[in-house]
């Protein structure tokens, strides 16, 4: 093997093993920042040794053994310095872990719990939303700071600093490395799901820049969602989120035109929807609905996405059914964005006037004043009602509000269509 | 990116001999690893080629040839479809398949986005829909 082959293999091993490695180490040292450094050190050792010795048969176990030795050294150093009782306890735990004859089996036993602890710690509410996203991609997704920086179009030092600060915040706040208990659990799980969906959405509808989508981030989020579904098989909303992402991702190829412009859902060529992802999404949705006594936010959104996925043609869409699910969603989680979507569904089911009343109320209420989709939807209703001048004004307003270049072009094109319609 | 890990047939798979309990347990554990890592999209094992057939289309003419087929090593016995970050990761997963003797071929799967959207077809579909919408209901 050439050095570059080894390097690629080490990268791949890192991608597969890093989360488990960091999670296992964090249980020993009780600090995710230290755990990650130890895992990184083990990786550096691998990069030095493997080109000579060859790749070990079980590279994950090799990295874990190397890192555990370093973890124990770390604890001994700390113990000598501080002589804290609790750390002596950790040392004992660490020694017990080392004494396990079959490291691989020991890993299998605990790794699920450790990973889950790592998930909850990375998405801890003490961290800002940006920090949670960066830390989750770093610790659980196995991405380098450079990869995260490129995905979010920010300079690498910004991401590096964000991660360093996040680790310090967790240490300062003495966030325990554990899965939250019952009372806290629902809220903390919501934070985890939010982080994963944020990552997905950043990839699915890039909020800034020239590209409409950054598929790499969608795949990272899907992978995280699938991992979480394996770790928490009895949580309905975990499956709901997985279902939502699978179904949305199924449309990736259809929602971008030949020159990179976005194609709206109803104009998409459904033959380009990925049937495998749709099937996976519908299966996950069924699991979520089976587990839940009352459908949660992600499950409801997935149910809406499923209505579209099941329709062979746009005309076959069950819009009245979708409007009902939006009403259920609004009950659970009252939000002007949900109302806006309900307006769209009602308009599709019963005509643009049915939706316009809701949209006008939302416009008057004002909380969505900076949201480009409100004037964009209103413009669409007005256009269909033949009120072209008002429609043009709304499309232009929407164009001035969006930060996505592609979307702005699309909205200006619709405004121009209003002008043409007025003339004809 | 997606990769297909294609398992080549061997004498046993072509004879319809299923793997023994130990081998099956190891394979289940491996599948679980793929699932837990969030990379497994699909995977199937195939019956021997004796239960299959080949359909040949030549200058528009159709010929059906029943199995079995002789070139065992060229045949496919099963596959996994995985979604990973790199070719190296796919290779790493393939090298972890629990088998003493097995040849696994790794092929990257085209994404629909690799092909240009057929704008002509989309345009035609749009026209068709417009006609449908204009139709008195």
What does this structure look like?
The complex is a heterodimer of chains A (424) and B (137). Chain A has 424 residues and is mostly helical. Among the domains of chain A are: 188-317, no CATH class; 323-424, Tetratricopeptide repeat domain (Serine Threonine Protein Phosphatase 5, Tetratricopeptide repeat, Alpha Horseshoe), CATH 1.25.40. Helix content of chain A is 75%, strand content 0%. Chain A has helices at residues 3-29, 32-53, 59-82, 85-99, 103-122, 129-139, 145-152, 156-172, 182-204, 215-231, 236-249, 275-291, 297-310, 319-332, 336-350, 352-365, 373-384, 388-401, 405-423. Chain A is elongated, with a radius of gyration of 25 Å. In chain A, 47% of the residues are buried. Chain B has 137 residues and is of the alpha+beta class. Chain B is 34% helix and 28% strand. Chain B is flat, with a radius of gyration of 21 Å. Chain B has a single domain (2-134), classed as Alpha-Beta Plaits (2-Layer Sandwich). A 4-stranded antiparallel beta sheet of chain B has the order 2-5-1-6, covered by helices on one side. Chain B has a two-stranded antiparallel sheet with strand order 3-4. Chain B has 4 helices and 6 strands; from the N terminus they run βααββββαβα. Chain B has helices at 11-15, 21-36, 87-95, 119-134; strands at residues 2-8, 40-45, 53-58, 61-66, 76-83, 104-108. Classes of the chains: A mainly alpha (424), B alpha+beta (137). Chain A binds chain B through residues 8-9, 11-13, 15-16, 112, 142, 215, 219, 222-227, 230-231, 252-254, 256-258, 263, 267, 269, 272, 274, 276, 280, 313-315, and chain B through 1, 35-39, 41-42, 81, 83-86, 88-89, 91-93, 111-113, 116-119, 121-122, 125-126, 129, 132.
